[in-house]
Structures are given as structure tokens and as C-alpha cells.
Write a structure and sequence with these properties.
The complex is a heterodimer of chains A (464) and B (172). Chain A is mostly helical. Chain A has one domain. In chain A, 70% of the residues lie in helices and 0% in strands. In chain A, helix 1 runs antiparallel to helix 16. The N and C termini of chain A lie close together (8 Å). The relative contact order of chain A is 0.18. Chain B has 172 residues and is of the alpha+beta class. Chain B has two domains: 85 residues, 2-Layer Sandwich (Alpha-Beta Plaits), CATH 3.30.70; 70 residues. Chain B contains six helices and four strands. Chain B has a four-stranded antiparallel beta sheet, with helices on one face. Chain B is rod-shaped and about 80 Å long. In chain B, 39% of the residues are buried. Classes of the chains: A mainly alpha (464), B alpha+beta (172). At the A-B interface, helix 1, helix 6, helix 8 and helix 16 of A face strand 2, helix 3 and helix 5 of B.
């Protein structure tokens, strides 16, 4: 049979599903009514978002003096949050692009939500550099266009400008990748819709997708080429983010290990965030048949791998701090360093969350356990926030000149903006979960016969 | 005698694939197939030519790359060369290493977006476009083949029925 798949491979779709059942299950959260829990979560997220919005407006109205930044520590929470959100935004494209190139079928149950998460996270990330400019109405100065002072061009030597190009390319390409994949699924919702308003909305969103043979042929080719383009793109984005630090002369930042270390960290934190969201979503939206233990275990394996790379990078930094013989490196990492200096708690939070706890995933019992996976994913999210905080704040607070050594403490505005972006992220994600097809159902239908539990059993009975 | 188009509905992709192969072998003219998901091997069975959209994307990428080179050379080297942190900015080849990230990003930007726009234009997909699948079930779990014939319609209907078609009707 053409649908043969080795019996040793675990099924990716459970339950006695036919093609129609997949449509019904994917459409259910969209067609049904929101329950109380959704409204409670949405209200909390909205309040957090509005609180953050107020803090942003206060910052813009008064100036970034309302943040906890000082002469020496001129990047702190803002850029920590920026890098944290960009990092989280790496998992979606990795799942949909890299796993597509590797022909990993398990990506199909989770890629839609992972990509949505990516886009929403990059939106949060983009906010921080813009509000950090202070005069946000001048944000267009980062674009290579002639401005009101004559044609004073942007500086293409600056990694900060590379970031502008990298993040905007990444956001826009992820968006069209996501949207193109959504067309057949919107079409499915459109053709099922009973209420005229819903029909209208999904007709508009589906761009008139009809499922012609030629359209599918182009669709698959476009997906493949976009995956090929997005794979180096996703690696370039965090590489360029790391160059914001690596090309400077701050001890602790001036480090060639940063690009691979940042990319691995980004995938690590991104997968943790996908894990957090999907573990909730599979329960709330009744998608247990499609987001299974196999998916969770596979993601935990990626987390274990990238967590390992990140841990090796930490150790390498320490080794080089000692081996380079540079007194500045030595200062940052060893003497007054991270582990024993005034920020020891941030350093040990990082080591505990990113290095020690993820090691539990070596045990099959733990990495296939939903509750433990959820706890670990939260721990990693916290740990990766501390990683960026450590890199930025610890290194800036201890520079070449001991007389300017200082400490940083956030103001309520710093904290409010961070909470606000988390609120904004969940507002977007909760709206998405109720209005979008959260699983790439068209793609999933194409693997049902090879990876569905019922078909696998049928084949076994027939000894095929 | 004018051309008549028969619409046949299938409810299984394997049956559909076999039927399409059979139609092709019997030299029928397959006008269109509507499917809810990409059926592996169907475009070959229906005798579709390969899409050239990947080639288009490559060309767009080359355009993006050239644009990036031209833009940065014009802005940084020709129009207003500046000494920024002592970095060499008075000739393109000396300054070039700093331009590589943006060259890459713009290559991807052009290749991806222009390819997707080409796809949408060629497949006629845009907002407010009306869907053209004749049966709403073809985005759920049914498959439709449109076959046209000049000769005996009954013979074609018989053929489709024997090949597993669930419903058959004449296109209005």
C-alpha cells in the first residue's frame, strides 16, 4: 500500500478518525461558544495588556527616564524582554520549516499554533526597541529612506540596523508562510459555516481558495521553497540579534560563541513556550487526538538537545574566561563574576532553570508526562529570561572602569510594560484559538491514512 | 456535438487516484480536480506539468540580492560616505563584509514575498475572490473530478461508476 508506514512508528492521530472527523474537530472551537474559562483568561490578559499599554504611554509621554536605566546600565529590562520574545518567536518557523525539510510528520499537529505563537511573540519583541527610542514618532529613521535632514542615510555597518532588516523580514515572511498555509483551512471553515456573517468572514479570509489540483501543486511547491528560505532566515535572525552584543567591546559581550549559543537558546525557549501553550490547548480545545504524547515527547527531545547546546556554551564561556588570560574576561566570569557577585541569584536562577531541571527529560517517564513537561516548560521560560538578563545587566554593571560599577533595579514601569506584553501576547493567542483553525487540517488529512491509529491497526489486522 | 462536462464525486483519495489514472489511460479530458488536501501523486496521474514557481522565486532572490548591493553601495559609498568608527567606508569591497547580513535578508525578503504574490496572482487568490469549488464538501472529505467528453456521455458515466464514483452529474 502507498500509505504504508513502519508499525514501529507511533500513531500521530488517535481515535477512530475519518477525514470528516478532522474537519469537525478543528472547526469545533471556532463554531462553538467560548466557555467561562476562556472569558476569565481573556479578561486577565486584557487587563494586563491595558496596564502595559498605560505604562508604554506614560513612558512615551514622560521619556525613558521613568525606567530603571542609568548611565552605566543603559540596556536592561527592555532589551532583555526584546531578546526573550524574539527567542520565543523562533520555534514556530523552526517547526514548520526545518521539520518540513526533514519530512517530520509530527509537525503537522502543532505547526499552525507554533507559527501563530511565533508571530505574536515577534510583535511583542518589536515593541521594545521602538519604545526604547523614546521619540517613537521618529522610528521611521531606521528605514533607508531620505529624511527631513536631507539624505542622511542609515548606517549599514551597525548590527542594530541589521536587526531592523532581520526582524522585519522574519516577521513578514513568517506571516505569509502562516497565512498561505491557512487558506485551505479557512476554506474548510467557509464551506461549513452556517451563519451568514461567519460565511462572509471566512470567505474573505480564505481568498476564494477552491482546492484545484494546480493550486495544490503550487501550494506544496511554495511551502517547500518558503521552508527552504525560512530555515536560514530563522537561524540568521538570532545570529544577528547576538551580533548586537558580540560586535561590541563590552567584556562578556565580545564573544564569538554568541551566534550559535543564541540560536540554540532561542530554539530552547521557543519550544518551551510552544510546549506551555499546546499542553493547555490540547485540553481546552479537545485536541488530545491530534496533539499526542508523541508530539510532547518529540518536543521535549528537542528541548533536551538545545538545552544541552546552551549548557555547553555556558561552560565554554567560563573555560574561555579562564583560558584566554584576559583580565577583563576573567573579571566578568570568574573574579567578581556572575556566580559570586551581587547578581549571584540571577546567575544561579539561570543555571538551575536551564541546565539542571531540563536534565530530568533524559528519563522517558518524565518526558512523556504532561504535568512535568508543563512545569519544565515554565521553568525554561523563566530561565531563558534570566539568561538574557544576566548577559545584559551583569556585563553592563561591571565594565572596564571600576568607578562606574553600578547596580540596576527596575521601576514599576519596566515591570508593567513586561507584564503588558505578556498580556498582549495572550490576548492575541486566545483570540486566535477561538477564530482560526488551530491545526493544519488539510495537511493532517494527508497523513491520516499513514499515521492514524485506526488505519495502522487495520493494516496490522490485514497483515499488510 | 458540443462538449459535455461530467462532475463525479469520490469519497476516498485512493479510489480517486485510481479513477484519475484510468481516465487518463482511456484518453478522457480531465478538466479539473477539487480536493480537500494535496493527494500525493495526483498531479502526475492527471498529467499536470511541473510548476515553475520555484524558478520564479530564485529569480526574485537574485533581484533582491542585486537590489541590496545597489542600495548599500549607493547609500554608504557613493551618496554620502562617512567615517563611522574608523570602519572602511570609501570602497565597496572594503565595506562589503558589513553588508552581508542585509544582502541575505533582502534576498530572502524578495524571494519569499514575490513568490507568494506570484502564487496568489496565478492561482487567482485574493480577498473578496469568490470560491469556485462546485460542491462545498470538496474542502471537507469529498473529491470532485470534472471530465469533459464529446462522445457518449453514458459511457463515461458508466466508466466513472465502475471506478468508484459516488455521485455523478452533468455540469450545468
Amino acid at each position: 500500500m502507498s500509505h504504508y508506514e513502519a508499525p514501529i512508528r507511533e500513531p500521530l492521530i488517535y481515535g477512530d478518525k475519518k477525514y470528516h472527523d478532522i474537519s469537525v474537530d478543528v472547526a469545533a472551537p471556532v463554531e462553538g461558544k467560548a466557555n467561562k474559562k476562556w472569558w476569565i483568561a481573556f479578561t486577565i490578559a486584557l487587563i494586563a495588556f491595558l496596564y502595559g499599554l498605560g505604562a508604554i504611554l506614560y513612558t512615551i509621554g514622560t521619556g525613558i527616564g521613568v525606567w530603571g536605566l542609568n548611565n552605566r546600565v543603559n540596556w536592561a529590562w527592555d532589551i532583555t524582554n526584546f531578546v526573550w520574545w524574539v527567542g520565543i518567536g523562533h520555534a514556530g518557523t523552526l517547526i514548520s520549516a526545518v521539520l518540513l525539510l526533514f519530512r517530520q510528520k509530527w509537525r503537522m499537529g502543532i505547526n499552525r499554533s507554533a507559527e501563530a505563537m511565533t508571530i505574536f511573540a515577534v510583535v511583542q519583541a518589536g515593541l521594545f526597541p521602538i519604545i526604547h527610542m523614546g521619540r517613537v514618532w521618529n522610528a521611521f529613521y531606521v528605514l533607508p529612506i531620505p529624511n527631513n535632514y536631507g539624505s542622511l542615510w542609515v548606517n549599514f555597518n551597525s548590527p542594530l540596523l541589521w536587526d531592523v532588516f532581520a526582524i522585519s523580514t522574519y516577521l513578514s515572511v513568517s506571516l505569509v508562510f502562516w497565512y498561505t498555509g491557512l487558506l485551505p483551512d479557512f476554506a474548510m471553515l467557509r464551506d461549513r459555516a452556517v451563519r451568514p456573517f461567519q460565511k462572509k468572514i471566512y470567505s474573505l479570509l480564505s481568498f476564494g481558495w477552491s482546492g484545484r489540483l494546480k493550486d495544490w501543486q503550487r501550494f506544496e511547491e511554495v511551502s517547500l521553497v518558503l521552508a527552504g528560505l525560512a530555515t536560514p532566515l530563522v537561524l540568521s535572525v538570532h545570529t544577528i540579534v547576538s551580533m548586537d552584543f558580540a560586535t561590541s567591546v563590552i567584556p562578556g559581550w565580545h564573544s564569538t560563541i554568541f551566534p550559535p549559543y543564541f540560536v540554540a537558546g532561542a530554539i530552547f525557549s521557543g519550544f518551551a513556550m510552544v510546549q506551555t501553550l499546546l499542553l493547555i490547548m490540547r485540553k481546552v480545545s479537545n485536541l488530545e487526538s491530534y496533539i499526542t504524547r508523541v508530539h510532547i515527547e518529540n518536543m521535549n527531545k528537542v528541548i533536551l538537545l538545545t538545552g544541552g547546546i546552551v549548557s555547553v556554551a555556558y561552560i565554554t564561556e567560563f573555560f574561555v574566561g579562564w583560558y584566554s588570560g584576559s583580565s577583563y574576561e576573567d573579571y566578568t566570569y570568574l573574579s567578581v563574576g556572575a556566580a559570586t557577585g551581587p547578581y549571584w541569584w540571577a546567575f544561579w536562577a539561570l543555571i538551575t532553570c536551564n541546565f539542571i531541571f531540563p536534565q530530568t527529560l533524559w528519563f522517558k517517564k518524565l518526558r512523556t508526562n504532561y504535568i512535568w513537561s508543563f512545569i519544565i516548560s515554565i521553568i525554561i521560560n523563566i530561565g531563558m529570561w534570566f539568561e538574557r538578563f544576566d548577559i545584559i545587566v551583569i556585563d553592563l554593571s561591571r565594565g572596564h572602569l571600576p568607578s562606574s560599577w553600578t547596580m540596576f533595579s527596575p521601576t514599576f514601569v519596566d515591570i508593567a510594560i513586561f507584564i503588558g506584553t505578556i498580556g498582549f501576547f495572550f490576548v492575541l493567542f486566545l483570540l486566535y484559538a477561538r477564530t482560526f483553525p488551530v491545526i493544519a487540517q488539510a495537511e493532517l488529512k494527508s497523513i491520516l491514512k499513514s499515521s492514524g491509529d485506526n488505519y495502522k491497526k487495520l493494516r496490522e489486522e490485514n497483515h499488510e | 456535438m458540443s462538449n459535455k462536462t461530467i462532475q463525479a464525486i469520490f469519497d476516498d483519495d485512493d479510489v480517486l487516484l485510481k479513477a484519475v489514472k484510468g481516465l487518463k489511460d482511456a484518453n478522457y479530458d480531465i478538466e479539473e480536480v477539487f480536493t480537500p488536501f494535496p493527494v500525493h501523486g495526483l498531479e502526475k496521474a492527471a498529467g499536470l506539468k511541473n510548476t515553475r514557481i520555484a524558478i520564479a522565486s530564485f529569480i526574485y532572490g537574485v533581484i533582491g540580492f542585486s537590489f541590496a548591493v545597489w542600495m548599500m553601495n549607493y547609500m554608504m559609498i557613493m551618496d554620502w560616505p562617512q567615517n563611522i568608527g574608523g570602519k572602511p567606508s570609501f570602497s565597496f569591497h572594503e565595506n562589503m563584509p558589513a553588508f552581508i547580513p542585509i544582502m541575505f535578508e533582502l534576498t530572502v525578503f524578495f524571494a519569499a514575498h514575490l513568490m507568494v504574490i506570484t502564487f496568489y496572482m496565478r492561482s487567482k487568490l485574493w480577498p473578496f475572490k469568490k470560491a469556485e469549488n462546485p460542491d462545498v464538501r470538496t474542502t471537507d472529505d469529498h473529491f470532485m473530478v470534472e471530465v469533459s467528453t464529446e462522445e457518449n456521455v453514458e459511457k463515461l458515466e458508466e466508466f466513472l461508476k465502475n471506478n468508484g464514483a459516488k455521485e455523478i452529474k452533468l455540469k450545468a
